[in-house]
Amino acid sequence: MTQPRATRGGSPPAPSWWRP
Question: Rounded to a whole number, what is the largest CA-CA distance in the chain?
Fold first, then answer.
């Protein structure tokens, strides 16, 4: 699994499987 891309808002979209 790859890291979510950072959006223009600054915070990356967090998928259900993504944990910071």
Answer: 22
Q: What angle do CA 14, 7, 3 make, to 5 degrees?
A: 45
The token duo for 20 is 């910071």
Residues listed for the chain = 20
**Amino acid in the structure at residue 5:** R
Neighbours of 12 (CB within 10 A): 13
pLDDT tens per residue across all 20 residues of the chain: 565 565 566 566 667 776 66
**In the structure encoding, which two tokens stand for residue 18, read together?**
């993504």
